[in-house]
Structures are given as structure tokens and as C-alpha cells.
């Protein structure tokens, strides 16, 4: 039976954390603590938001959201990777396919309250049961590949729906996720605008800067140590009043 309205997953877009409580079988908090990792939590939030908007668990085309993914990559992602369409979508596809579902090694997040320990086969990993690892991995489905990939956050396999996921940003909690998501995007657009305005001077602004033509420039003639300056008013000064070292 589907747990209507019950919160199973909370995505905190202000602190970039995900809190998971699924069927009482897995309880954990994940922290996406670096810019490149925050980007992937934002991708999960985007997929969930689109499923909520459509009212069902469905595959979401990344190519349809290229502009938004670019914004996410260049703000929360810190431009850690290229924003070019083919490169960016391929990178998301690879991480969704292999890195995000890997709860044991957790290459894209930290599991809060747990420490990695040495296992019998490989290096340090987080200790989870096979059921817990499967519950998490089953959330990450996809269709297609590369820039044509469609992502699916498969809550239905857990007997849940997009209604059971909450997105939080700033003060207050937004159960349907729409208000928090919009506030999150507005903050990113402001940040992106600030980054752009700190860049090179716009062409129209550069054109407004007065230019001095060659004919308007005063010549400086240096001849064997004798300094001759064609500067108005300088002729009236006595040689003792002119100190060439003060001209630099």
C-alpha cells in the first residue's frame, strides 16, 4: 500500500543534504559537501520536481533541461566540469548510472553519523546491509545513454510516489516542493548574474569610454638625457623648479 502524503525523502537545497527514511528499513542522512557533489543533488531535485509537476514517476529527458542544468553546473557546481551539452549530459549519465547508486563506497556524498571501515575485499567502505544497498540503488534508473538519456527516480519500486519527497530551501518547509524549488532557482540566477557582471566590461560600456586620438597626444622627446616636454605652462618654470624624477 502506497504511503500517501508521508515524507520518505527530504532534499535540503540550502545545506545540500538528503534525509532518507524508507519503509522503516533504512534511515540515513547524506551530505553532498563539495561543489561538484552539490550539483548531483541538484540534478536529483530537478528530476523529482519534474515528476511532481507531471504527477507521476516517469523518466525525465535531460536534453529538455539543458539551460537549467548549465545554470546548476555553473553555480552550485562551481563549473567543476564543462557545461557544453554533450559533455555535461554524458557526465550526468555516467554518475547516475554508477556513482550515485553506490551506497557502500559513496563516491558522491558522505553518510552522516557513519565512518568508513576497512572491508574484507576492498578499501574503506560504509557498512550497510544488502537490503539497504538495494533499496538505495533501485532509485536510480535511466533509459537511453549519453546526451539522449532520460532519468527516473524510481520511488514506485519502494511503494512510494513523488508526493513522498519534500524539497526544503530557506525558512519553512514546502511539502509540494514547488515554492522551495523556485526560491532555490531564483537565488542561483542572482548568483549567476553577479558572476557575469564581475566579468569583462561589456562592449557597449567600453564604447562609452572616451578615446584619445593620436593627434591629441603631447609628444615626449628624450634626447641624450635632455628632457624636452611640450606641456602647457612648463615653459614658465625655471630649470631649478623642474625635477625630472617627479615625472614618473
Layout of helices and strands, plus pairs?
Blueprint: E1 9-12, E2 17-22, E3 26-31, H1 35-54, E4 60-61, H2 66-74, H3 85-99, E5 110-111, E6 117-118, E7 124-125, H4 130-137, E8 140-143, E9 150-153, E10 165-168, H5 178-197, H6 203-207, E11 220-223, E12 226-229
Parallel strand pairs: 1-10
Antiparallel strand pairs: 1-2, 2-3, 3-5, 4-9, 6-7, 8-9, 11-12
Work out the number of β strands.
12
Q: Are there runs of 5+ residues with pLDDT below 50, and where? A: 200-229, 244-248
Overall pLDDT metric: 80
Give the ordered list of helices and strands: EEEHEHHEEEHEEEHHEE
Overall shape: it is globular
Which sheet architecture does the biggest sheet show?
5 strands, mixed
Number of domains: 2
Structural class determined from secondary elements: alpha+beta
Describe the overall structure:
- This protein has helices at 35-54, 66-74, 85-99, 130-137, 178-197, 203-207; strands at 9-12, 17-22, 26-31, 60-61, 110-111, 117-118, 124-125, 140-143, 150-153, 165-168, 220-223, 226-229.
- The protein is of the alpha+beta class and 248 residues long.
- The chain has 2 domains: 9-197, no CATH class; 217-247, no CATH class.
- The strands form 4 sheets. A 5-stranded mixed β-sheet has the order 5-3-2-1-10.
- It starts with 8 loop residues before the first strand and ends in a 19-residue tail after the last strand.
- Mean pLDDT is 80; it is low at 200-229 and 244-248.
